[in-house]
Request: fold
Amino acid sequence: MVSSIRRMLCVVLLTGVLPVFAAGWDDNARYPAVQQFLKDLDLSVYRSPDFDSRPWWCDAPRAVEIPEDMIEEFFLAGAQDGITIIRLFSLMAITVRDQGIALCGSGDVLARVVRRNRINLGMSLPMENIAVYSWIPFDDPNDPYSIARSIIVYREPYTFIVPKDVMPADIKVGTWQKVPYTYGSETGTGALVTLGFHVSSNRVGFENIRGLGARLHGPLGYITSLLPFIPDDIHHLYLEQNTLFARALIAKEIPGFEDEERNRIRVDPMLPVSEPDQGTSD
Reply:
């Protein structure tokens, strides 16, 4: 009986726990600068956001706002490692979950850091149009791989232009609903995007997305634009190994996504400091 229990425990460890650890070791090896930054990051030492009352977009028992120089270090670590934005933000979500502290802040800080350091975000939505954002720990006993959620308010909806050889569709941002927001002295109404972070041994990325849509290229895109009852929501964007999976009206798989430099974060000396991210306002 005892030996049977021991064998069963060994199977559980080998098939359940070790793959999760293996994924962490792999990220340590592939992204040492990011992992070192996150290892040293202690969210508890930073101040709570300067709000008169906790806003709905940063609704957590405990929340902090890290200073601009730390955000700069975070992005520069990502550029040093050549990581994709999906994986970079998912690794931050692990830290938020492990420390049990939400991370909230102003999108203007993100945009300044990216512009000042001439950071090319690769295949990523721009930072320019974000009003406020948050990473909030999420604990689902029925799904241990759903670790955090993110709330992002964009000042206005827009369409992100995606090269046709990368994906057969552009990304519409802010397709869900308009919401009020306040940050410091700024009060406005913006476009809401929410998503969850999924991190497991073989998958990392965004799930249960609301507020992003796909505008197909070519004649099919024109036809679907005339038929508003056809859903165009993007539900999931995640990585399995080096393949990007996009789940929307038309599912798309992009093998070797993380192998291509153009999809990864990097410092680009050719970018002028004042250059805005690519996108068109709707």
About this structure: Residues 1-25, 219-231, 275-279 have pLDDT under 50 and may be disordered.
